[in-house]
What does this fold into?
Amino acid sequence: MPQDAKQYSPAITVLLVTLNYVFTIAAPPILALYAAARVEPRYMYTAIAASMIAWIAYVSIDNCELRTGRPDEAFSKDHWVFSRLRAYMKLKLHRTDTVQAQLKDDQAIFAFFPHGVNSDFRVLMAGPMYDAFPKVHAKGAPRTLAASILFKIPGVRTVTLKTGCVDAGRSTANRCLRQGLSLFLCPGGQDEQLETICGRERVYLKSRKGFVRLAMIHGVPLVPAYCFGSSDLYRTYGAFYSFRRWLVRNLRIALPLYSGDWGFFCYPTPKGFPLQVPQDIVFGDAWTPPHVKEPTRDDVSK
It folds into this structure.
């Protein structure tokens, strides 16, 4: 299937993406606050307060992530950062023609494993998926279920929406499926994110069956997918594991400890650049569960 054909120097990619972060994300607010503080310190606090109020108001009024989002095909496919990162990580999608033929009514729920530290493959695959699965894109780009916090952060909100994400709430997922849209999701979520260990393949699945329930309710097939290399993009560390596990279980906050190579990557916070590990996303055959409008726990477990 079509993949990004261009090849780029890894070192130049790291440098350009880092400079893009510094000059477009980090520098403007820092310089604005510095200028306000130099003129009159109290202006800085006023500017911060005004910016926060304006942002909260905008997010509350827009609220499109609770409906069907705002995907941008051209952004996902052609943005230069994504093109370079796909080449840097050697991202490839692997599927057979059989999978495409098995999709009922051009709609499906795609379940991706494992989540990895940051699920970097999720953002980068959004563009190539248009060509890999044209049938499920016929009614509109599939929506990816994403954590609510991502839509509250400036910069991250824009990228998240343009790459097809919506809020991971059950009502939003049901709304998208009722409108004939397909879904992408990582069932492991924060638990799988925290449990990521570099060099090991692990999935968090036994207690995560909500996506199966959705497929049963709406009568759509499930397509399993595994991203080989996702767990190895960063070096992971086990310090303070008990406390971080408590945060996930009680507050649904995942704080993985990890490091990468030199450079800044992702928005809005800087982090080490991911290791140059190939990302191979392999799709299994589609499976259509029984259509049950109100499945019980036993129905789902079967």
Observations:
- The longest strand covers residues 222-228.
- The first helix runs from residue 10 to 39.
- The radius of gyration is 20 Å.
- The chain has a mean pLDDT of 89.
